[in-house]
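=== Discrete structure encoding ===
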Amino acid sequence: MHGLRWIADGEYADHRLAGDGPLGEIGNAVHYLVGDPVRQTFDDFVALGRALRENGRMPVMRPLLEVAGLRLLQWQAAPRALVSHEVVPFRPHRGVLLIVEEPTDGRPDRWLEWLHAEHYPALLAVPGTAGAWTFGPTNAWDPLPADGGPTRSTSPSSISTTTRWPRRRPWRRLSKNAGDQPPCARCSPGRCGP
């Protein structure tokens, strides 16, 4: 298991590209990568959390927006990152640009194709972007490790992302019932083709 927590406080909230409604209140995001045996690892993790809480060792809990066990659908690295896509979250970085979205017109096939064929290549070409990971299947959480720090990377990255959303656009609540769709026509879960 590998865990990271990213906190957006102080000036970071002013650099958000979008995030009204419930997502506008996000102050931190926690990211755990869990390997096999996933079920046993998860059960042990929950038991440890319970024991820590019962013994007064758990930090103050903030309100939760969503807790989900999402699978990794696609991952890519920018060539200048000098690491493979599997290594992107583990390499030193200054922060992430977290994109939380889902398609609004039914099945995600066309949207995921667009992410793969157009959006990710454009985003990975922005200086300061090290890589992109997509989690799902019904909602995508895209942490983009940033070499230049989140506030420096947000401005150039916004060139690639503002075509998707005007600044401060309200978000639609994420659905948890869209089913387990494959990531896109070229990709199988966990592997994204060229």
